[in-house]
Amino acid sequence: MDWKELLPLDRGQMERALRGFPEMAERALGLACRIPNGVQGFKNAVVLGMGGSAIAGDLLARFARVPVMTVRDYFLPAWVGPETLLIAISYSGETEETLSAFREGLRRTKRAVALTTGGALAALCEEEGVPWVPIPPGFPPRAALPSLLFPLLACFARFGHLAGDPAVIISSLKKLRDALLPEANPNPAQRLAEKLQGKVPVVYGAGVAVPVAYRWKTQINENAKQPAYWAELPELCHNEIVGYELAGKVFPQGVMIFLRTSFDHPRVAKRVEILKEVLFQRGLPFQEVWGEGPDPLSQALWLLYFGDWVSFYLALLNGVDPTPVALIQELKNRIRGC
Ligand code: F6R
């Protein structure tokens, strides 16, 4: 495959954003200081967001030492109250579900912060005297994940609420970037994308890799413009696996992808070995990708960044520009007019 020939498809410059992911994360660590110490004393947190903005909440929830829930909806769970830290994330600042839940939340708690490039969310914060973190503009929201995630990780670390140190991950992300750039040869992300071409990926993860499996699915949807699905371990052993019985017939394009970390629960690791045997016996294809790094946070972000590159290369193999998300935009425009 001559990847150089495919690169002109990347008219929206997704490759530039992916290349800059580690540096974007590094700069974003510095934005944590925009979240004032005054919000401290919370017992739990809700992250309000949708799509590429919301995934930061899922990742934070896996490493926070206080309960964190991501809310992808117009309204909030009943338990949200004065002891809750409300975190609204919207890259554009214009997402109606996030704005609606944030307005409701501000009536229930005074502890609040938003992360956005501006828009209606920034205006609402100014009006209500709520601090907001100015996120650098100019990227598709999903490509700006480091800018949205790392201020939260660094702030929770400062408050003593984080398992892991976000600063130590940057150098391993840089190393991974060098191994996955278009010119890198051999290139494991390109190899995996080739194996996924014409297939429907079903991405599996356990523990810290659960939100990462979901990120793979959404990145393949949005960048490569194709169906992809996900499920989590060990739950999928109690339902999804029964579907393997007819998968060969009704889902011949399916490829299961196991995202692994060395921190998987030993019983989960055993389950994966059994699942691989079950798939093999039925002639159903699967792939396995292992995260690298000294701790769970490093391995989760390693797997996430690897998946972002896979989705980018799959887009090129599919002959599409990774950046535009025409159907998301169409839906937003149509619902705005209702
Ligand atoms: C686009 C993307 C979408 C948006 C979502 C919410 O790259 O990933 O999933 O993130 O439509 O929009 P924002 O992030 O602006 O609140």
Describe this structure in a few short sentences.
This protein has helices at residues 3-6, 14-19, 21-29, 51-63, 96-106, 119-128, 145-158, 170-180, 188-196, 210-224, 244-250, 266-281, 296-317, 326-336; strands at residues 44-48, 68-71, 84-90, 112-116, 132-134, 200-206, 229-233, 254-260, 286-290. The protein is of the alpha/beta class and 338 residues long.
Write a structural description.
The chain has 2 domains: 35-163, Glucose-6-phosphate isomerase like protein, domain 1 (Rossmann fold), CATH 3.40.50.10490; 184-317, Glucose-6-phosphate isomerase like protein, domain 1 (Rossmann fold), CATH 3.40.50.10490. A 5-stranded parallel β-sheet has the order 2-1-3-4-5, sandwiched between helices. Strands 7-6-8-9 form a 4-stranded parallel β-sheet, with helices on both faces. It has 338 residues and is α/β, with parallel strands linked by helices. It contains 14 helices and 9 strands. Helix 3 (21-29) runs antiparallel to helix 8 (170-180) and helix 4 (51-63) packs antiparallel against helix 10 (210-224). It has helices at 3-6, 14-19, 21-29, 51-63, 96-106, 119-128, 145-158, 170-180, 188-196, 210-224, 244-250, 266-281, 296-317, 326-336, and strands spanning 44-48, 68-71, 84-90, 112-116, 132-134, 200-206, 229-233, 254-260, 286-290. Fructose -6-phosphate is lined by residues 50-53, 90-92, 95, 98, 140-142, 222, 325, 328.
